[in-house]
């Protein structure tokens, strides 16, 4: 069996040890005579898995007791509507910071539920930098300020936490959750689809401060109302049980590797290998401002884009897949989440060197 180095932006590579454990437990979980997939979500076996997954997430991220952790469905794109449905009703307006494709989608969706104001935008610079907070125009009466902490497509990431005073900060952390320590107390709400850094698709994690629950617009479907879900311990409807189980295994893996500080160190080391090479190359380039570069998603271009397909084919032949950039920005993109080993990044850079020597 050969595993590829999978640079997919999501669903993305998972730790091999997690997949092996899931395989071992597939047919009979811990002597229960059932697969996790076959368990009642209200049975004692699954309740234990659910509780352990939540408690490990709380421990790893240092989530204060005054926050609920909800396991929902609908993905981050679902949350683009669910967040305003639940939060915007407090004042009817919200501030959004536009840093690229994902925040643009979020703010467009939010307009269906209230007045959206763009506090800052990186659009003029083609989304190659995060607007400094000194340029933001925040409204004191906004219900919340929304950011995307890591733009998966454009490859810009916040390496600082915005100060929004009494207005709750809301972050789409789909593509950098668990990649480094975060001060959860600085946020009112954090949401993330699991399929980048936490597990398989189908699970959306929402971490929400208690006082923000209970303000949903009357049109909010019950299953997407944070209050309904919080009151029911995320079991108002059947939660994505298998995805929660796999996320639980991923969280244990992250703990065993030393938690989020160790993840950050590992991710910085990997990103450095790639960015250092890009910065000295005259053939490959990355357009993002150095201080805003993503540690998770690294877009890059070849000097001659007519060689893109040749590059991708050669990568595939070497067992490196999913390097094609998003159609919105073109070129290449290497997604190097927690589960990507440094060997994968070294193999990619080695291949890029050879490619440059041959075609540069
Ligand atoms: C992948 C991604 C999404 C979309 O998630 P879905 O699960 O497809 O809804 C949204 N935001 C960010 C930052 C992402 O990386």
CATH superfamily of the largest domain: Type I PLP-dependent aspartate aminotransferase-like (Major domain)
What structural category arises from helix and sheet content?
A: alpha/beta
Tally of helical segments: 9
Q: Summarize the amount of helix as a percent range.
A: 25-40%
The count of DSSP E runs of length 2 or more, i.e. the number of strands, is 14
Indicate the mean pLDDT: 98
Q: Under CATH, the topology of the largest domain is which?
A: Aspartate Aminotransferase, domain 2
Strand order of the largest sheet: 2-10-9-8-5-3-4
Give the tags.
three-stranded antiparallel β-sheet; alpha/beta; Aspartate Aminotransferase, domain 1; globular; 360 residues; 2 domains; binds pyridoxal-5'-phosphate; Aspartate Aminotransferase, domain 2; seven-stranded mixed β-sheet
Topology:
Blueprint lengths: L4 E2 L9 H9 L19 H18 L5 E6 L2 H13 L5 E6 L2 H10 L4 E7 L23 E4 L1 E2 L4 E2 L11 E4 L16 E5 L10 E6 L16 H6 L9 H16 L2 H22 L3 E2 L11 E6 L5 H10 L2 E2 L10 E4 L6 H18 L1
Parallel strand pairs: 1-13, 3-4, 3-5, 5-8, 8-9
Antiparallel strand pairs: 2-10, 6-7, 9-10, 11-12, 12-14
Helix pairs in contact: 1-6, 2-6, 3-4, 7-9
The structure holds pyridoxal-5'-phosphate.
The site of pyridoxal-5'-phosphate has 12 residues, from α3.
């Amino acid at each position: 069996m050969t595993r590829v180095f999978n640079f997919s932006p999501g669903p993305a590579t998972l730790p091999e040890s997690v997949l092996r454990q899931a395989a071992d437990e597939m047919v009979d979980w811990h002597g229960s005579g059932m697969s996790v997939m076959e368990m009642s979500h209200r049975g004692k076996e699954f309740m234990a898995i659910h509780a352990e997954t939540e408690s490990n997430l709380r421990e790893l991220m240092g989530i204060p007791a005054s926050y609920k952790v909800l396991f929902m469905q609908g993905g981050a794109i679902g949350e683009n509507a669910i967040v305003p449905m639940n939060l915007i009703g407090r004042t009817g307006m919200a501030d959004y910071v536009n840093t690229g494709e994902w925040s643009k989608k979020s703010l467009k969706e939010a307009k269906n539920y209230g007045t959206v104001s763009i506090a800052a935008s990186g659009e003029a610079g083609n989304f190659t930098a995060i607007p400094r907070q000194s340029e933001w125009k925040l409204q004191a009466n906004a219900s919340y300020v929304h950011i995307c902490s890591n733009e998966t497509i454009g490859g810009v990431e916040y390496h600082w936490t915005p100060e929004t005073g009494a207005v709750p900060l809301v972050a789409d952390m789909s593509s950098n959750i668990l990649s480094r320590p975060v001060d959860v107390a600085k946020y009112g709400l954090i949401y993330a689809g699991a399929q980048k850094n936490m597990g398989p698709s189908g699970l959306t994690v929402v971490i929400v401060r208690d006082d923000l629950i209970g303000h949903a617009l009357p049109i909010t479907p019950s299953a997407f109302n944070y209050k309904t879900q919080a009151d029911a311990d995320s079991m108002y409807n059947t939660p994505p049980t298998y995805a929660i189980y796999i996320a639980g295994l991923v969280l244990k893996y992250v703990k065993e590797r030393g938690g989020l500080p160790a993840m950050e160190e590992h991710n910085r080391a990997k990103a450095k290998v790639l960015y250092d090479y890009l910065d000295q190359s005259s053939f490959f380039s990355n357009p993002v401002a150095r201080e805003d570069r993503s540690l998770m998603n690294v877009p890059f271009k070849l000097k001659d884009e007519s060689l893109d397909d040749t590059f991708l084919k050669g990568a595939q032949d070497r067992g490196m897949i999913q390097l094609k950039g998003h159609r919105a920005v073109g070129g290449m993109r290497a997604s190097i989440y927690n589960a990507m080993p440094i060997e994968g990044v070294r193999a990619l850079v080695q291949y890029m060197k050879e490619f440059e020597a041959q075609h540069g």
